[in-house]
Amino acid sequence: MAKRTAKLILTEPDTVIDLPVYGGSLGHDVIDVRALVSKGVFTYDPGFMSTAACESAITFIDGAQGVLMHRGYPIEQLAAQSNYVELCYLLLFGELPTPEAYRQFEARIRNHTMVHGQIANFFQGFRRDAHPMAILCGVVGGLAAFYHDHLDTADSEDRLISAIRLVAKMPTIAAMSYKYALGQPFRQPRNDLSYAENFLHMMFSTPCEPYEVNPVFAKALDRILMLHADHEQNASTSTVRLAGSTGANPFACISAGIAALWGPAHGGANEAVLDMLEQIGDDSEANIQRFIDKAKDRNDPFRLMGFGHRVYSSFDPRARVMKETCDQVLAELGNPDDPTLRIAKRVEQIALEDDYFIQRKLYPNVDFYSGIILRAMGIPTNMFTVIFAVARTIGWISHWNEMIDGDLKIGRPRQLYVGPPRRNYPD
Ligand code: CMC
């Protein structure tokens, strides 16, 4: 229902077009421009800076106030009081589970953690030094070849089964890609462990000796998963929606999301942050200032990785929680004065006092600290984006599901054509 009307005035010939304006439960109003096509014009918005591509009830972000809420619950409260599996339920179904619903949901996830035995054969086709994100894109897309018994996207129960399979199997595949690079045997999931504990077990245990999961690490990993679980219509989620709008199967859609996440401007940023901190090397004032100056130089493509965000023009609320978790993990390791963390804190401090960053409202984002935590837990840098992908799978699948349940239309943007007009092929 339109709450007001926008008037678009076109000249030559003079035309007035009335466009309905809708209001959501929170956030900006939107102008419904769908009628424009029948008036012979399109809207033009590269990068979708001003375009709402869908209606969604999953996640709300107020970038100016630094607010992130899932189904109405602030991320800080969820991070402090909930856990990743419960958040998966909330994102997928819209409400927090009752204790019984939680028990059943968690049991379903636990019972789908194993992958088909033949999936292990896929790995042999990859070079040992393959980037694990390359493996993840391929293997997750390949899951459709194994689980085609429930791929009817019009059937909500089939969609739920695929969602559970994806959430359950992502840590298994991620850990397999790590073990493959190391040349160590794959570890089977253990159903007596929690989601995060099981992930750490599959990554770090070997058949040769007992492995005990460090509870501080399990808690930190669970938090990292929660903080990355969903972030409304970001590049990878929009990719999943666009792929899904064609009726493609969920495994193919999530694989498309993984590919989009891989870029350094999106999920690859935490890997890039650590590379940058290592390049900086020491926390001397002059050295850090040199990198800050490089980031400010418009003729230099270098950017301060882990800073800035398309939607947050104030602090990224996830970064606060991440910073606190980072301190906890380093304290557990008896290394609260980690040199990389020292450099990170100094970079943050100098940047936050610098006019360039202040004027552009560039603050640390979620990835600024997550890399330091993951590295402290023994997770290699090239696995960082993989962990992000594991976490984001529930966000992707919840949006995919919401889209199919709603007014599904194939996503098909228009363009402003600037190529040559019609011309004839030379005789
Ligand atoms: N370092 C230096 N300058 C920056 C940075 C940065 N990290 N980010 C933005 N700017 C400048 C940019 O050069 C531009 O300056 P000017 O107005 O003089 O041309 C201004 O700030 C606005 O930047 P923009 O490129 O228009 O902003 P955007 O919304 O298109 O980009 C971003 C957002 C995240 C891609 C960008 O801030 C960036 O590249 N950050 C570093 C990479 C990073 O940390 N990415 C992780 C994002 S959070 C994880 C996720 O949710 O996926």
Automatic annotation (TrEMBL):
Biological process, per Gene Ontology: tricarboxylic acid cycle
NCBIfam families listed in its UniProt record: cit_synth_I, PRK05614.1
Family per similarity comment: Belongs to the citrate synthase family.
Alphabetical list of PANTHER family matching this protein: CITRATE SYNTHASE
Name of the protein described by the UniProt record: Citrate synthase
Gene Ontology MF: a single term: citrate synthase activity
InterPro entries: Citrate_synth-like_lrg_a-sub, Citrate_synth-like_sm_a-sub, Citrate_synthase, Citrate_synthase_bac-typ, Citrate_synthase_sf, Citrate_synthase_typ-I
Reaction(s) catalysed (UniProt annotation): oxaloacetate + acetyl-CoA + H2O = citrate + CoA + H(+)
Residues at the active site: 309, 367
Lineage: Bacteria, Pseudomonadati, Pseudomonadota, Gammaproteobacteria, Pseudomonadales
Keywords, in A-Z order: Acyltransferase, Transferase, Tricarboxylic acid cycle
Pfam families, A to Z: Citrate_synt (PF00285)
Pathway(s) where this gene product acts: Carbohydrate metabolism; tricarboxylic acid cycle; isocitrate from oxaloacetate: step 1/2
GO cellular component: cytoplasm
